[in-house]
Amino acid sequence: MMESARRELERMRGSSGAWQELRYERATDADGDDCDGNAVRRAKVLWALQYDRRPDDLPLVRWLAEQEALCRGEAPFQGLSEEVELAGFLLAEYRQVDDVWLHWEIKRANFDTWCGYDLEHLFAAGVQVTTAFVRDSGHTDRDAALECLLDEEGRPWVSEEGLAKWSQRKRSRFPADPASEDPLTWVERARLTGDRELARRELDRWAAGRGRDKDTLSLLRHYLADLGAFAEAARAQRENLAFIGDVRDSASAWQTLAGLERQAGDHHAAWDALRECRRALDGVSRWSEVGLGRMYVEELFLLAGSAEGELAGEVFAEADRQARDVPRLPLVVLQTAAEAAVKIGDQTRAGHYQKLRDAERQRIDTEMG
Q1: Kind plus residue range of the DSSP H or E element containing 35
Q2: What is the pLDDT of residue 209?
Q3: pLDDT at 191 over 80
Q4: Residues with Cβ within 8 Å of residue 11, at least 6 apart in sequence
Q5: For the CA atoms of the chain, what is the radius of gyration?
Q6: Is 22 within 8 Å of 42 (Cβ atoms)?
Q7: CA angle 331, 112, 206 (to 5 degrees)
Q8: pTM (2 decimals)?
């Protein structure tokens, strides 16, 4: 993975004309969702830059940061990716005061970047020099940027000492030596490039020798499920049940286990987990009116649509019964319920849920104008 990343970086260093291959380009993925067609190629160049930093790479880093800002602004699900954080960190390391405006573009790209892209990026050249630069600027966003950078008394939110400490934390977050990288970072990067075998090897390397505590098991379950190893993820989740505290957490844990068992194809184990979930819900006040209750009903319908024979009918009957007591079921749950009813051949209940689904869709369309 990194060998090809290094080759791409050398090619970009050789000709700025090749940078267009890294531009943000709106595309459609295999699921029909909007995506950035060059996201992976751009990410690989950023990874290579992380481990081979040179002073004359500043124009390339700026180009990459600009494309990440565009991507975050256009992304349908917004978000703050590792790639935009890495681009921002690499740019901040050059400490060029005029880059405050590029950091500003990233900061205001979407809700998630506004909340999560550290303000220290904008102060990277120094707190006082950046404040003076923006104050003296004729930039159209001058006032908005100052409102972000300064408190009500006109003082910077960040101190020089705080900026130095932040820089150190970021250097630990993005080490210059690949040997110092967190193994889970390699899992994420391999997954992004589609190399599932490498992702699994790195995950196994991370898990080897670690204590099987709650945090380790939770992360292991997450990554195993993400890699499609649902049976192994279910085993990790089942092991994690020993660390569950209150009844709400217990209900959530059993519901998660049910979903993993269903995706692993063990429908009877999923049904057992859902019955445990329902018992735990008895201890949750007004459970039918909260998200956890709706998730429980959704998982029942999902299992009814996946199981076969008598089990499918038994699970659907329970889902149908529980759904009567859970108000405001979301559109996705109503759609799942309709599909499950069709699957088991219950046309009456299929018509019922299709009617509710259509009414909910109409309500949403009306609210959205």
Answers
A1: strand 34-36
A2: 80
A3: yes
A4: 18
A5: 25
A6: yes
A7: 95
A8: 0.83
Identify how many contiguous H helices and E strands the chain contains and give both numbers.
19, 2
As a whole number of angstroms, the distance between CA 151 and CA 153 comes to 5
Buried b (16+ CB within 10 A) or exposed e, 174-194: beeeeeebeeebbbebbbbbe
CA–CA separation, 278 and 280 (whole Å): 5
> What does the pLDDT look like over 51-63, one tens digit per residue?
999 999 999 999 9
User: Using one digit for the tens of pLDDT, what is the confidence trace for 116-161?
Assistant: 999 999 999 999 999 999 999 999 999 999 999 999 999 999 999 9
**What are the φ and ψ backbone dihedral angles of 138, each rounded to 5 degrees?**
-100, 15
Q: What is d(CA 67, CA 47) in angstroms, rounded to the nearest whole number? A: 15
Q: Read off the amino acid at residue 264.
A: A
Task: Please check whether residue 97 is in contact with residue 130, taking contact to mean a CB–CB distance below 8 angstroms.
Answer: yes
Q: Convert 241-256 to b/e letters by CB count within 10 Å (16 or more is b).
A: beebeebbebbbbbbb
Cα 362 to Cα 106: distance, rounded to the nearest angstrom: 36
Evaluate whether 227 touches 191 at the Cβ level (below 8 Å). yes
pLDDT above 90 (res 31): no
DSSP 137-166: ---TTHHHHHHHHB-TTS-BSS-HHHHHHH
Q: Tell me the one-letter amino acid at 149.
A: L
d(CA 163, CA 109): 22
pLDDT score, position 225 = 98
Given a contact cutoff of 8 angstroms between Cβ atoms, the answer to whether 11 and 18 are in contact is yes
Site of tokens 């205001």: 108
Q: Residue 36's beta-bridge partner residues?
A: 26
Burial of residue 21, with CB atoms counted within 10 A of its CB: 0-12 exposed, 13-18 middle, 19 or more buried: middle
Q: What is the pLDDT of residue 76?
A: 66
Tell me the three state secondary structure of residue 26: strand
Q: Report whether pLDDT(226) > 90.
A: yes
